[in-house]
Amino acid sequence: MKQDKFKKDKIVIYKSPKNEIEVEARFEGETIWLRQDEIARLYGKERTVITKHINKIFADKEVDRKSNVQFLHIANSDKPVAFYNLDVILAVGYRTNSARAIHFRKWATNVLKNYLFKGYIINEKRLLQAKNQIQELQGAISFLQEKSKHELLAGQEQEIFNLLANYSKTLTLLEQYDKEKLSLIKNTKGKFILKYEEAINVISKIKKDLIARKEASDFFGRENSDKFKGILGNIYQTFDRKELYPSLEEKSAHLLYFIIKDHPFVDGNKRIASFLFVYYLDKNDFLYRSTGEKKINNNTLTALAILIAISDPSEKDKLIKIITNLLAT
Fold it and tell me: How many structural domains is the chain composed of?
């Protein structure tokens, strides 16, 4: 095992607004890495609290343990020390949700934003050579950048840039820009059919749990006419004996979009859409990557739900393509 791999990489120093703390974060592999004791100091929490959060994050498969943890030898340590990347650090931060956590998220977003923008500038000449092939990607980038300024997405900047980065990687444009034009991903056939009665039963269970936790009212999940039945019908509709949305990716993306955009419930449309989106993918054994990590984690799903809610109906195709490409990873 290499001795302190991070020595040859960039060290960035984080300082809290009132200079209560200073943490050296290692910047390597397009992300930031911290030890567990540094995360505890960063958020002003006991290390045992951080340990519990991290274990729960991995248990819930919010992030993948294997790809988000590195064990390295460092000075004055007789055994390898675990370093956690930004996905884990932010996941812990969302669970603590303190003023320090909010400030750190903004700082980390700015660091990665500069990296992403500089990375894009470096490849700009190559991208311009394939102007026609990357037109849709540029549209997606512009769409995400524009929407990231919306007040409802305050605090979600990191997830917006994650969407941008993941979308770019999924389509492998920087390496394979000349192969084909961007398109809707429609590769997988789903076996599970989400029926109205089962969906209503799932929503009822969610509502009961949320009310018990005082996170929803009796209006949550109350149907607004027959809109919800119509949405499920639209997901499976056919034309000339052919399904309009034949793939699992398309059905999932439209399920999320239609529930949020058509408001079939008096209250809770975004949460219900997100729950059913996850439920539908899980029932089709399509929720996780081969590594055990969710294809779209909870924070990213929250950002997607807000993006859909604030989008113009004319932007539907962009959102559907973004979702289907993310599911293809």
Answer: 3
